[in-house]
């Protein structure tokens, strides 16, 4: 009896050992992707963290690790150093990196490093101008000349995109651009410390600090004059959009539609992810859009037309290479455009 028991224990131990080895072997076969997002707790981080689980559950050969970073440019820089496999980037960020402009003018992306290709877009950052509702002296964007305007996050696309629009209008050098702690913006507007603020919604949802402004300040949205709209529309690298003011704000902001300059944001990887893996990843992200919608409120825009968002985003920067796996999927769907570029494998 004792001998049978010892035999049973030995067989059980061997079986568990073999099972553990099998699990370890399977895990070792998974392609681990250290993917940069934004700051922990930010919308970008929450989205990637939630989406990573959706992909990991459906692709046993892939494992996405959501890594918080200081933001899109920090994410790109970390990828350039080999600390990340994929980056969090907007279309404007990708142009900066590939064209060695903006933050890359004096410190280019390392030429030997793997660059991210256009891979997966998730939402638009929709920027607009707001001021106190009683500011009769600010009726259009051109009235910002000579005014103190808060534009958050210098060194990021959130700063660079409106800068490009205001530069095209010829008012950038005439504005007094300031950067404040986000928590202080409502008081600054109410006290007149700043005259206006450039803010944004992600996927039609106000970012938290602007939602705070909306709840604590009586504001109005300032749209550009028709002639300036035409000037702003000609700037390449972003797209123009409109927001329904009633759906976005908790108050009457003086306009029915909010004029926005939009930068598509998403998560991108380079030739370090094979065409086959890229195809599988993209397929999961597109075909599980309704599940992804549950990750964050701003993903509702994505879920309405996930493929349409990819086409519009890629079309806004057609000279930036697209991941070959993504290209394959878009070709199968008949959505690939001949002027787009497939990234080298």
Structural summary, described in words:
By secondary structure, the chain is of the alpha/beta class. Mean pLDDT is 91; it is low at 17-27. The protein has helices at residues 2-29, 43-58, 72-80, 91-99, 157-169, 185-191, 208-216, 226-233, 245-248, 275-287, 289-292, 300-304, 306-316, 324-332, and strands at residues 31-36, 62-67, 86-90, 120-132, 148-150, 176-178, 196-202, 205-206, 219-222, 239-244, 257-269. The longest helix has 28 residues, at 2-29. It has two domains: 8-123 and 266-332, Periplasmic binding protein-like II (D-Maltodextrin-Binding Protein, domain 2); 124-263, Periplasmic binding protein-like II (D-Maltodextrin-Binding Protein, domain 2). The chain is globular, with a radius of gyration of 24 Å.
Secondary-structure blueprint:
Layout: H1 2-29, E1 31-36, H2 43-58, E2 62-67, H3 72-80, E3 86-90, H4 91-99, E4 120-132, E5 148-150, H5 157-169, E6 176-178, H6 185-191, E7 196-202, E8 205-206, H7 208-216, E9 219-222, H8 226-233, E10 239-244, H9 245-248, E11 257-269, H10 275-287, H11 289-292, H12 300-304, H13 306-316, H14 324-332
Parallel strand pairs: 1-2, 5-6, 5-7
Antiparallel strand pairs: 3-11, 4-7, 4-9, 4-11, 7-8, 10-11
Summarize the structure.
This protein has 345 residues and is of the alpha/beta class. The chain has 14 helices and eleven strands.
Notable characteristics:
345 residues, alpha/beta, 2 domains, D-Maltodextrin-Binding Protein, domain 2, globular, 14 helices, single chain, 20% strand, 11 strands, two-stranded parallel ribbon, 9-stranded mixed beta sheet
């Amino acid at each position: 009896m004792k001998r049978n028991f010892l035999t049973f224990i030995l067989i059980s131990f061997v079986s568990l050992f073999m099972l553990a080895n099998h699990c370890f072997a399977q895990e070792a076969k998974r392609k681990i992707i250290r993917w940069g997002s934004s700051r922990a707790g930010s919308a970008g981080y929450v989205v990637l963290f939630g989406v990573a689980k959706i992909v990991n559950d459906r692709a046993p050969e892939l494992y996405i690790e959501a890594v918080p970073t200081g933001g899109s440019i920090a994410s790109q820089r970390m990828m350039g150093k080999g600390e990340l496999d994929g980056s969090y980037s907007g279309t404007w960020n990708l142009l900066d990196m590939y064209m060695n402009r903006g933050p890359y003018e004096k410190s280019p992306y390392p030429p030997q490093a793997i660059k991210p290709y256009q891979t997966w877009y998730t939402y638009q950052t929709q920027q607009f101008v707001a001021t106190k509702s009683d500011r009769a002296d600010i009726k259009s964007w051109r009235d910002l000349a000579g005014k103190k305007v808060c534009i958050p996050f210098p060194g990021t696309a959130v700063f660079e995109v409106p800068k490009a629009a205001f530069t095209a209008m010829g008012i950038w050098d005439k504005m007094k651009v300031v950067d404040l702690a986000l928590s202080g913006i409502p008081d600054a507007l109410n006290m007149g410390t700043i005259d206006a603020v450039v803010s944004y919604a992600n996927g039609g949802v106000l970012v938290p600090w602007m939602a705070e402004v909306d709840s604590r300040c009586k504001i109005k949205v300032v749209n550009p004059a028709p002639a300036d709209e035409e000037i702003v529309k000609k700037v390449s690298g972003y797209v123009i959009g409109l927001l329904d003011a009633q759906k976005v704000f908790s108050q009457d902001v003086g306009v029915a539609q909010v004029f926005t300059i939009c930068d598509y944001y998403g998560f991108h990887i380079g030739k370090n992810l094979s065409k086959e893996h890229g195809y599988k990843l993209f397929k999961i992200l597109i075909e599980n859009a309704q599940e992804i919608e549950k990750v964050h409120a701003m993903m509702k825009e994505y879920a309405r037309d996930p493929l349409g968002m990819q086409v519009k985003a890629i079309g806004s920067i057609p000279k930036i290479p697209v991941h070959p796996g993504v290209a394959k999927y878009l070709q199968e769907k008949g959505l690939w455009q001949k002027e787009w570029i497939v990234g080298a494998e």
